[in-house]
Design a protein that fits this description.
This protein has 11 helices and 12 strands. The strands form 2 sheets. Strands 1, 2, 3, 4, 5, 8, 9, 10, 11 and 12 form a 10-stranded mixed sheet that branches. Helix 3 packs parallel to helix 4 and helix 4 packs across helix 5.
Length: 320
Amino acid sequence: MKRFRRLRQNENIRNFVCENKIDVNDLIYPLFVIEGVNIKSPIDSMPNIYQYSIDRIDEELQKIAKAKIPAILIFGIPEYKDEVGSGAYDDNGITQKAIRFIKEKYPELLIIADVCLCEYTSHGHCGLVRNCEILNDETLPLLSKTAVSLAKAGADIIAPSDMMDGRVCAIRSALDDNGFINIPIMSYSAKFASGYYGPFRDAAGSAPHFGDRKSYQMDPANGREAIREIEDDLNEGADMIIIKPALAYMDILSKARECFGIPCIAYNVSGEYAMVKAAAQNGWIDEKRIVLENMISLKRAGADRIITYHALDVAGWLNA
């Protein structure tokens, strides 16, 4: 009889044979920066997550630095929006100003800049719109301008999340043409049209004002298509890929790890965060145990890094 329990009998042995571990260096923390002064605005659907104006953002950055979290993913929330999302590629836009501020005070912190138009457009879609159609090719130059503007501001990594076809190639060309050949692209290659994004849209003010995003974000039913999307982005010049959401799409994450020898990042999204927080607040689950189990499950599935709103909590538990 095989006795598998020999390797489970006490904590020292379990730690000795542990196949996967979560580390603070695995964590990427999303951060919301809003235009204005003296703002620390709670997001009701995401407990303990806030929108910060630049003059207040140091409160969160100090926690990030103390926790030794190595990277943030930054989202800007402008005061004004228009049909063409001009705030996204304004060199003096909210995200660009925030990046310059953070880089000056925390030069060692990796800044991953999300590239999309949805937070900046008056209609809330990720691309230009004509007659209720989201335009693909016409959007690419604006995404490219956004990427270059963010790189100029000091972003370390560019992360296009719009899901327009051909955007990685367009952004790579624009970055190279402007002298940013060493700026990596972390592409949201497998981003699904998911119901798990609801709280994020509260946080970023990015809900579409008509229709939905199913014509450009992926069908949750399609796994093989996700691998084709990832392969295409890599061929266009992506250096890393993001699978979003994370927990319901671990099969995609595992297959990507199996097929491609590049860094794979799992995005543990707002709805996944909110469900855990709500259940914990009602006393239905052990929050620490569940969160750490989710994190290690993503590592086991193949994640090299994890974007998560739990990052500060996880870092605190690990550092303790």
